[in-house]
Write a structure and sequence with these properties.
15% strand; 3 domains; binds zinc ion; alpha/beta; Rossmann fold; 362 residues; four-stranded parallel beta sheet; SH3 type barrels; globular
Protein backbone atom coordinates (compact mmCIF):
# COMPACT_ATOMS: atom_id res chain seq x y z
CA UNK A 1 0.00 0.00 0.00
CA UNK A 2 1.36 3.38 -0.99
CA UNK A 3 1.81 5.90 1.86
CA UNK A 4 3.58 9.20 2.41
CA UNK A 5 5.92 9.28 5.38
CA UNK A 6 8.61 11.54 3.95
CA UNK A 7 8.78 13.46 0.66
CA UNK A 8 11.48 11.05 -0.55
CA UNK A 9 8.77 8.39 -0.81
CA UNK A 10 7.71 10.12 -4.02
CA UNK A 11 9.82 10.56 -7.14
CA UNK A 12 10.43 14.02 -8.57
CA UNK A 13 7.95 13.17 -11.33
CA UNK A 14 5.31 12.26 -8.75
CA UNK A 15 5.93 15.50 -6.86
CA UNK A 16 5.62 17.43 -10.13
CA UNK A 17 2.35 15.63 -10.79
CA UNK A 18 1.02 16.52 -7.34
CA UNK A 19 1.88 20.16 -7.92
CA UNK A 20 0.23 20.08 -11.34
CA UNK A 21 -2.97 18.61 -9.87
CA UNK A 22 -2.93 21.12 -6.99
CA UNK A 23 -2.64 23.98 -9.51
CA UNK A 24 -5.55 22.53 -11.46
CA UNK A 25 -7.62 22.26 -8.27
CA UNK A 26 -6.79 25.91 -7.51
CA UNK A 27 -7.98 26.96 -10.97
CA UNK A 28 -10.96 24.58 -11.33
CA UNK A 29 -12.17 23.53 -7.86
CA UNK A 30 -15.59 22.49 -9.22
CA UNK A 31 -13.98 19.65 -11.21
CA UNK A 32 -12.90 18.02 -7.95
CA UNK A 33 -15.89 18.73 -5.71
CA UNK A 34 -17.15 15.12 -5.88
CA UNK A 35 -13.87 13.30 -6.53
CA UNK A 36 -14.02 11.56 -3.13
CA UNK A 37 -17.76 11.05 -2.73
CA UNK A 38 -18.34 8.18 -0.30
CA UNK A 39 -14.71 8.06 0.86
CA UNK A 40 -13.63 8.51 4.47
CA UNK A 41 -10.48 10.16 5.78
CA UNK A 42 -9.54 9.37 9.40
CA UNK A 43 -7.48 12.08 11.09
CA UNK A 44 -5.64 10.62 14.09
CA UNK A 45 -3.98 13.37 16.07
CA UNK A 46 -2.22 11.98 19.11
CA UNK A 47 -0.74 15.39 19.84
CA UNK A 48 -2.51 18.68 19.20
CA UNK A 49 -1.97 20.51 15.93
CA UNK A 50 -5.22 22.20 15.14
CA UNK A 51 -4.10 23.90 11.95
CA UNK A 52 -2.71 20.76 10.32
CA UNK A 53 -5.84 18.79 11.26
CA UNK A 54 -8.09 21.54 9.87
CA UNK A 55 -6.12 21.56 6.64
CA UNK A 56 -6.53 17.79 6.15
CA UNK A 57 -10.21 17.90 7.03
CA UNK A 58 -10.89 20.89 4.76
CA UNK A 59 -9.02 19.07 1.97
CA UNK A 60 -11.17 15.94 2.24
CA UNK A 61 -14.43 17.91 2.56
CA UNK A 62 -13.51 19.97 -0.52
CA UNK A 63 -13.20 16.67 -2.43
CA UNK A 64 -16.70 15.64 -1.38
CA UNK A 65 -15.42 13.05 1.11
CA UNK A 66 -16.13 12.58 4.79
CA UNK A 67 -13.94 12.81 7.86
CA UNK A 68 -13.79 10.89 11.12
CA UNK A 69 -11.29 12.00 13.71
CA UNK A 70 -9.50 11.43 16.95
CA UNK A 71 -8.26 14.78 18.10
CA UNK A 72 -7.47 14.32 21.76
CA UNK A 73 -4.56 12.21 22.84
CA UNK A 74 -6.02 11.68 26.30
CA UNK A 75 -9.30 10.24 24.99
CA UNK A 76 -7.68 7.78 22.61
CA UNK A 77 -6.81 4.14 23.10
CA UNK A 78 -3.17 5.18 22.83
CA UNK A 79 -3.60 6.49 26.37
CA UNK A 80 -4.68 2.96 27.32
CA UNK A 81 -1.54 1.52 25.79
CA UNK A 82 -2.77 0.34 22.39
CA UNK A 83 0.07 0.07 19.92
CA UNK A 84 0.26 2.28 16.87
CA UNK A 85 0.15 -0.85 14.70
CA UNK A 86 -3.12 -2.03 16.31
CA UNK A 87 -4.63 1.45 15.95
CA UNK A 88 -3.66 1.48 12.27
CA UNK A 89 -5.22 -1.96 11.67
CA UNK A 90 -8.41 -0.92 13.45
CA UNK A 91 -8.77 2.35 11.59
CA UNK A 92 -8.16 0.49 8.30
CA UNK A 93 -11.58 -1.13 8.91
CA UNK A 94 -13.33 2.25 9.20
CA UNK A 95 -11.66 4.57 6.70
CA UNK A 96 -10.20 4.63 3.19
CA UNK A 97 -7.16 6.72 4.09
CA UNK A 98 -5.67 8.11 7.30
CA UNK A 99 -3.57 11.08 8.35
CA UNK A 100 -1.63 10.53 11.57
CA UNK A 101 0.17 12.93 13.87
CA UNK A 102 2.02 11.35 16.74
CA UNK A 103 4.61 12.55 19.29
CA UNK A 104 6.83 9.47 18.72
CA UNK A 105 9.27 9.56 15.82
CA UNK A 106 8.68 6.76 13.36
CA UNK A 107 5.04 6.27 14.44
CA UNK A 108 3.56 6.98 11.01
CA UNK A 109 6.01 4.56 9.40
CA UNK A 110 5.00 1.83 11.84
CA UNK A 111 1.35 2.63 11.03
CA UNK A 112 2.05 2.42 7.29
CA UNK A 113 3.53 -1.05 7.67
CA UNK A 114 0.51 -2.26 9.65
CA UNK A 115 -2.37 -0.52 7.83
CA UNK A 116 -4.26 -1.83 4.82
CA UNK A 117 -5.11 1.73 3.73
CA UNK A 118 -2.74 4.59 2.77
CA UNK A 119 -1.17 6.49 5.68
CA UNK A 120 -0.15 10.14 5.49
CA UNK A 121 2.39 11.31 8.04
CA UNK A 122 0.98 14.54 9.50
CA UNK A 123 4.04 14.95 11.74
CA UNK A 124 5.95 12.39 13.85
CA UNK A 125 7.67 14.17 16.71
CA UNK A 126 10.60 16.25 15.50
CA UNK A 127 11.20 13.91 12.57
CA UNK A 128 9.12 14.55 9.42
CA UNK A 129 6.18 16.69 8.39
CA UNK A 130 6.06 16.03 4.65
CA UNK A 131 2.77 17.79 3.86
CA UNK A 132 4.30 21.06 5.11
CA UNK A 133 7.13 20.50 2.64
CA UNK A 134 4.59 19.83 -0.11
CA UNK A 135 2.94 23.17 0.74
CA UNK A 136 6.36 24.86 0.56
CA UNK A 137 7.22 23.30 -2.82
CA UNK A 138 3.80 24.24 -4.23
CA UNK A 139 4.16 27.84 -3.09
CA UNK A 140 7.64 28.17 -4.58
CA UNK A 141 6.41 26.67 -7.86
CA UNK A 142 3.29 28.82 -7.94
CA UNK A 143 5.29 32.00 -7.33
CA UNK A 144 8.30 31.23 -9.54
CA UNK A 145 6.98 28.81 -12.15
CA UNK A 146 9.88 26.44 -11.45
CA UNK A 147 11.66 24.46 -8.74
CA UNK A 148 15.18 24.68 -10.16
CA UNK A 149 17.66 27.53 -10.65
CA UNK A 150 16.67 29.38 -7.50
CA UNK A 151 18.55 31.01 -4.63
CA UNK A 152 16.74 30.07 -1.44
CA UNK A 153 17.52 31.76 1.89
CA UNK A 154 16.67 30.01 5.16
CA UNK A 155 16.63 32.39 8.11
CA UNK A 156 16.40 31.88 11.88
CA UNK A 157 16.55 28.58 13.73
CA UNK A 158 18.20 26.22 11.29
CA UNK A 159 19.31 23.82 14.00
CA UNK A 160 15.97 22.56 15.28
CA UNK A 161 13.67 23.65 12.45
CA UNK A 162 12.49 20.38 10.92
CA UNK A 163 10.59 22.22 8.16
CA UNK A 164 13.92 23.72 7.08
CA UNK A 165 15.72 20.36 7.01
CA UNK A 166 12.89 18.77 5.12
CA UNK A 167 12.67 21.52 2.49
CA UNK A 168 16.46 21.54 1.95
CA UNK A 169 16.26 17.78 1.49
CA UNK A 170 13.45 18.14 -1.03
CA UNK A 171 15.23 20.94 -2.93
CA UNK A 172 18.44 18.87 -3.10
CA UNK A 173 16.69 16.76 -5.75
CA UNK A 174 16.32 19.72 -8.11
CA UNK A 175 19.07 21.37 -10.15
CA UNK A 176 20.62 24.81 -9.88
CA UNK A 177 19.54 25.42 -6.29
CA UNK A 178 21.72 27.68 -4.16
CA UNK A 179 21.00 27.65 -0.44
CA UNK A 180 21.86 30.62 1.78
CA UNK A 181 21.86 29.67 5.47
CA UNK A 182 21.20 32.72 7.66
CA UNK A 183 21.33 32.07 11.40
CA UNK A 184 23.09 32.91 14.64
CA UNK A 185 26.09 30.65 15.40
CA UNK A 186 24.08 28.84 18.09
CA UNK A 187 21.40 27.80 15.63
CA UNK A 188 23.46 26.74 12.62
CA UNK A 189 22.27 23.89 10.44
CA UNK A 190 23.38 20.58 12.04
CA UNK A 191 26.57 18.97 10.71
CA UNK A 192 24.80 15.88 9.37
CA UNK A 193 22.75 18.09 7.03
CA UNK A 194 26.02 19.22 5.43
CA UNK A 195 27.53 15.73 5.31
CA UNK A 196 24.43 13.87 4.13
CA UNK A 197 22.61 16.46 2.04
CA UNK A 198 24.41 19.66 1.01
CA UNK A 199 27.92 18.26 0.47
CA UNK A 200 26.81 14.79 -0.55
CA UNK A 201 24.51 16.14 -3.27
CA UNK A 202 27.05 18.81 -4.28
CA UNK A 203 24.65 21.68 -3.60
CA UNK A 204 25.89 25.26 -3.70
CA UNK A 205 25.51 26.97 -0.33
CA UNK A 206 26.86 29.70 1.90
CA UNK A 207 26.46 30.44 5.59
CA UNK A 208 26.06 33.90 7.08
CA UNK A 209 24.80 35.57 10.23
CA UNK A 210 23.67 38.64 8.31
CA UNK A 211 20.15 38.65 6.85
CA UNK A 212 20.43 42.14 5.36
CA UNK A 213 23.66 41.31 3.53
CA UNK A 214 22.17 38.12 2.08
CA UNK A 215 18.91 39.75 0.98
CA UNK A 216 19.73 41.08 -2.53
CA UNK A 217 20.46 37.69 -4.11
CA UNK A 218 17.46 35.78 -2.74
CA UNK A 219 14.57 34.50 -4.85
CA UNK A 220 12.93 32.84 -1.85
CA UNK A 221 13.25 33.77 1.84
CA UNK A 222 12.09 31.05 4.23
CA UNK A 223 11.67 32.54 7.71
CA UNK A 224 11.56 30.62 11.00
CA UNK A 225 11.39 31.75 14.58
CA UNK A 226 14.41 32.21 16.84
CA UNK A 227 13.15 31.00 20.20
CA UNK A 228 14.43 32.34 23.48
CA UNK A 229 14.65 28.90 25.07
CA UNK A 230 17.19 27.73 22.47
CA UNK A 231 19.83 30.02 23.99
CA UNK A 232 21.86 29.14 27.05
CA UNK A 233 23.00 32.76 27.25
CA UNK A 234 19.99 35.10 27.51
CA UNK A 235 22.10 38.23 26.91
CA UNK A 236 23.17 36.70 23.64
CA UNK A 237 19.51 36.11 22.74
CA UNK A 238 18.55 39.72 23.52
CA UNK A 239 21.43 40.97 21.40
CA UNK A 240 20.60 38.77 18.42
CA UNK A 241 16.86 38.42 18.26
CA UNK A 242 16.08 41.58 16.27
CA UNK A 243 18.54 40.63 13.53
CA UNK A 244 16.31 37.72 12.60
CA UNK A 245 12.99 39.57 12.66
CA UNK A 246 11.88 40.56 9.18
CA UNK A 247 10.84 44.20 8.98
CA UNK A 248 10.00 46.38 5.97
CA UNK A 249 13.34 48.23 6.06
CA UNK A 250 15.23 44.94 5.73
CA UNK A 251 13.42 44.41 2.41
CA UNK A 252 14.88 47.60 0.88
CA UNK A 253 17.49 45.69 -1.09
CA UNK A 254 15.35 42.62 -1.81
CA UNK A 255 14.33 41.57 -5.30
CA UNK A 256 10.95 42.89 -6.43
CA UNK A 257 9.75 39.33 -6.96
CA UNK A 258 11.17 37.81 -3.77
CA UNK A 259 8.75 35.29 -2.21
CA UNK A 260 8.66 35.26 1.61
CA UNK A 261 7.60 31.95 3.14
CA UNK A 262 6.98 30.92 6.74
CA UNK A 263 5.54 27.61 8.00
CA UNK A 264 3.34 29.50 10.52
CA UNK A 265 2.25 30.11 13.20
CA UNK A 266 4.13 33.39 13.30
CA UNK A 267 4.86 35.00 16.63
CA UNK A 268 6.88 38.12 15.92
CA UNK A 269 9.50 37.05 13.38
CA UNK A 270 7.76 38.79 10.46
CA UNK A 271 6.38 42.27 11.00
CA UNK A 272 2.64 42.45 10.22
CA UNK A 273 3.48 45.53 8.14
CA UNK A 274 4.85 43.09 5.54
CA UNK A 275 1.56 41.18 5.19
CA UNK A 276 0.25 43.57 2.52
CA UNK A 277 3.49 43.49 0.53
CA UNK A 278 3.02 41.35 -2.61
CA UNK A 279 6.17 39.46 -1.63
CA UNK A 280 4.47 38.02 1.47
CA UNK A 281 3.43 34.48 0.51
CA UNK A 282 2.87 32.81 3.90
CA UNK A 283 -0.91 32.86 3.78
CA UNK A 284 -0.87 31.64 0.18
CA UNK A 285 1.30 28.85 1.57
CA UNK A 286 -1.54 27.84 3.93
CA UNK A 287 -3.92 27.58 0.97
CA UNK A 288 -1.21 25.69 -0.94
CA UNK A 289 -1.07 23.23 1.97
CA UNK A 290 -4.76 22.44 1.59
CA UNK A 291 -4.51 22.10 -2.21
CA UNK A 292 -1.50 19.78 -1.99
CA UNK A 293 -3.27 17.66 0.65
CA UNK A 294 -6.22 17.38 -1.78
CA UNK A 295 -3.89 16.30 -4.59
CA UNK A 296 -2.15 13.85 -2.23
CA UNK A 297 -5.41 12.24 -1.04
CA UNK A 298 -6.47 11.79 -4.68
CA UNK A 299 -3.14 10.24 -5.62
CA UNK A 300 -2.94 7.83 -2.70
CA UNK A 301 -6.55 6.66 -3.16
CA UNK A 302 -5.85 6.11 -6.86
CA UNK A 303 -2.59 4.23 -6.13
CA UNK A 304 -4.43 2.10 -3.54
CA UNK A 305 -6.63 0.68 -6.30
CA UNK A 306 -3.62 -0.75 -8.13
CA UNK A 307 -0.95 -1.35 -5.57
CA UNK A 308 -1.13 -4.23 -3.15
CA UNK A 309 2.54 -4.32 -2.24
CA UNK A 310 3.62 -3.47 1.26
CA UNK A 311 4.98 -0.02 1.90
CA UNK A 312 8.75 0.43 1.47
CA UNK A 313 10.75 -2.74 0.97
CA UNK A 314 12.33 -3.73 4.25
CA UNK A 315 14.50 -6.53 2.82
CA UNK A 316 17.52 -4.33 2.17
CA UNK A 317 17.67 -3.23 5.80
CA UNK A 318 20.16 -4.62 8.22
CA UNK A 319 19.03 -5.83 11.58
CA UNK A 320 22.16 -5.35 13.60
CA UNK A 321 22.33 -6.29 17.22
CA UNK A 322 25.52 -4.28 17.40
CA UNK A 323 23.66 -1.03 16.60
CA UNK A 324 21.34 0.88 18.93
CA UNK A 325 18.92 3.77 18.44
CA UNK A 326 19.40 6.07 21.43
CA UNK A 327 16.56 8.43 20.52
CA UNK A 328 14.21 8.35 23.53
CA UNK A 329 11.44 9.75 21.33
CA UNK A 330 11.73 6.93 18.79
CA UNK A 331 8.81 4.53 18.61
CA UNK A 332 11.20 1.55 18.73
CA UNK A 333 12.30 2.70 22.20
CA UNK A 334 8.77 3.00 23.54
CA UNK A 335 6.66 0.27 21.96
CA UNK A 336 7.44 -3.40 22.43
CA UNK A 337 8.25 -5.79 19.65
CA UNK A 338 9.17 -3.26 17.02
CA UNK A 339 12.13 -4.67 15.17
CA UNK A 340 15.28 -2.59 15.59
CA UNK A 341 16.31 -1.94 11.99
CA UNK A 342 19.11 0.22 10.64
CA UNK A 343 20.15 1.59 7.26
CA UNK A 344 23.60 2.69 6.22
CA UNK A 345 23.31 6.28 4.97
CA UNK A 346 27.01 7.09 4.55
CA UNK A 347 29.25 4.19 3.55
CA UNK A 348 32.46 6.24 3.57
CA UNK A 349 32.09 7.22 7.23
CA UNK A 350 30.13 4.07 8.17
CA UNK A 351 27.11 6.04 9.36
CA UNK A 352 24.02 3.99 10.22
CA UNK A 353 20.58 5.37 11.00
CA UNK A 354 17.53 3.94 12.71
CA UNK A 355 15.00 2.90 10.04
CA UNK A 356 12.10 4.34 12.06
CA UNK A 357 13.36 7.72 13.31
CA UNK A 358 16.54 8.19 11.21
CA UNK A 359 18.62 9.13 14.26
CA UNK A 360 22.25 8.14 13.88
CA UNK A 361 22.75 4.74 15.48
CA UNK A 362 25.49 4.04 18.00
ZN1 LIG B 1 14.95 5.25 16.21
Amino acid sequence: MRSLIDTVDFSIEELDDLIRVACDIADHPEKYAHACDGKILATLFFEPSTRTRLSFEAAMLSLGGNVISVSSAGASSAAKGESVADTAKTVSCYADIMAMRHPLEGAALVAAHAASIPVINAGDGGHCHPTQTLADLYTIYREKGRLNNLTVGFCGDLKYGRTVHSLINALSRYTGIKVVLISPEELRLPEYMFAEVLDKKGMTYEETTDLVAAMPELDILYMTRVQRERFADQEQYQRLKDSYILTLDKLDTAKADLAILHPLPRVNEISVAIDNDPRACYFKQVLGGKLMRMALILKLLEDAKNDYQSFRVVDGLIHKDTKTCRNGRCICQVEQEIEHLFVQTDAENDVWRCYWCETQAE
